[in-house]
Amino acid sequence: MAADFIQSTPGAEMTFKRALVVDDSKSARISLQRLLEDQGLEVCLADCGEAAIDLLQGELVDVIFMDHNMPGMDGLEALTTIKSDPRTATIPVMMYTTKEGEVYVSQARALGAVGVLQKQFAPHVLFDMLLQLGLVTDRRTTKDHLVAVDSPSVRERSRHSPDPDPDREYDQQALGTSVQTLVTRILEDQHLSLRADILHSHRDFARQVAAEIHERQHADIAAAEPTDSTTHSNQVDENPSRLTSNSILAICLTAAVIVLASLYWQTSQSQQALEHALSAAQGKLEMSERALELALLAENLPAQPSRSNDLVATLRWAANRNQRVLFDDNAFSDARAQQLTELLDQLEAINFTGEVVVESHLGAFCLVSNDAGGYELAPPDLPMLGCNLVGHPLDESSFTEERQSPAFTEFINDTSTARRPGIELSLIAHDRLSSRLKADYPQSAENAGAWNQAAAQNHRVELTLIPDSADGGEGGI
User: Fold this and answer.
1) With 80 as the cut, is the pLDDT of residue 149 above it?
2) What is the mean pLDDT of the chain?
3) What does the alpha-carbon distance between residue 313 and residue 247 come to, in Å, rounded to a whole number?
4) Residue 170 maps to a domain
5) Which of 438, 452, 411 lies closest to 326 in space, CA to CA?
6) Mean pLDDT of 139-147
7) Looking at CB atoms within 10 Å, which of 15, 23, 248, 279 has the fewest?
């Protein structure tokens, strides 16, 4: 299968780090691609394990994000193949999946993965991981910080925060990473230093044993050489001398093996102790980071209803991270069903009651007719006068069923997933007239490319959370 290569900033003269995203879900690939491009990485896309292996034969990347469940070669099989090839074995591989559990994480790490990244993650998690791999720099110390403060994600969060402070946000984001990196580095240095000392003592002991054995052999050989006055009785005594020499040599070798085995066991025990200490330190660090987050949240949100609103606002912001819908895709797709299932689980966990409204808005694309009797996107260089239709085939429709995939329809009809106590899920399919604009269409567009860029932003799904009055007042979030 073919793999697509997307360059985040064409024509740039600086060297970009490259990332490879392997996932059979088109929406998941595009979502992670945009997040990585926001961090300044070039992104390669592959829809299966075989395509990823073929791509790596021609070019190398700096990091790989590998899905687990894929048709054909799954993620763990692809990981094994990558690590078995000396040319690609050193590329860090991050399993990017919905699969959870310590068993799966241990299995992925045992096969060579650097970690497991859940598909639903907090905004700072990807940045922290890329920072630890050395693929991005701390934005607090670069000019890029000024650009990041004005990014769409920061502006989106600022609308729901009473006192937005981007500098403080990035300071908090980098604090956990810097402390964790420092602790990890100190423990690793101690481990390497202890291991070097043990290996050095092993080598000294081995050299001493070898020197003693060598001297004893020379002494035995000298004592065993016959002289002119050697008698038959002396020749007869030579055999016991050799027997004694061989016995001493065997005893020395046995003792050396025993001592080396003991030192090796001590080294293994020391290494395991260091690993346990590192694991415990990392666990304490994660608890400290969580305590810091809760303390900062309590400082900014003194009242319980306000805290609940902020959690709901955060979930709403995360759910709207991937708003766009491709022209020929269903607005209510398989991926959207999975997203809503996870969102409802999170809302139920924080005891949210209210309404979840999911709205589909249409974009007015420049379209041309195809051989099948339908429409497709016009070539970017086509003049606007060449458009057969400026709009969307569903312009006159407001039926949600026409925008649903089979899996989404099954999700809606399954009361155990779509129906939650105290939560009402509402779907709205806007026709062309009722669809709200997110981006203005260019007044002087000469070709279809510029026009369809605006249409792609308007062709989207928006999610709104409307809590009951008991959860924080009226109005949607």
Assistant:
1) no
2) 76
3) 81
4) no
5) 452
6) 46
7) 15
Looking at the structure of the chain, the number of domains it has is 3
pLDDT > 60? residue 61: yes
- Rounded to two decimals, what is the model's pTM? 0.38
User: Domain for residue 113, yes or no?
Assistant: yes
Same domain, 329 and 451: yes
Treating both helix axes as pointing N-terminal to C-terminal, what angle do 304-319 and 334-349 enclose, rounded to 10 degrees? 170
281 near 183, Cβ under 8 Å?
yes
- Asked if 361 and 436 count as a contact pair (C-beta separation under 8 A), the reply is yes
- For the ranges 206-215, 263-272, 391-400, 440-449, the one whose mean pLDDT is highest: 391-400
Q: 92 near 114, Cβ under 8 Å?
A: yes
Q: Which two tokens stand for residue 98?
A: 């919905």
DSSP β-ladder status, 18-22 and 63-66: parallel
Q: Phi and psi of 100, rounded to 5°?
A: -130, 175
- The answer on 271 and 361 residing in a single domain is no
The answer to whether residue 50 sits within a structural domain is yes
Residue 151 lies in a domain: no
Question: Are 328 and 443 part of one and the same domain?
Answer: yes
Q: Are residues 269 and 316 in the same domain?
A: no
| Distance in angstroms (rounded) separating the CA atoms of residues 30 and 152 | 17
pLDDT on residue 139: 58
Whether residue 230 is predicted with pLDDT greater than 50 in this model: the reply is no
| Same domain (yes/no): 131, 202 | no
Cα separation, 401 vs 60, in Å, equals: 44
Q: What percentage of residues in the chain have a pLDDT greater than 70? A: 65
Task: Check residues 264 and 176 and name the one with the higher pLDDT.
Answer: 264
Domain enclosing residue 345, as ranges: 304-471
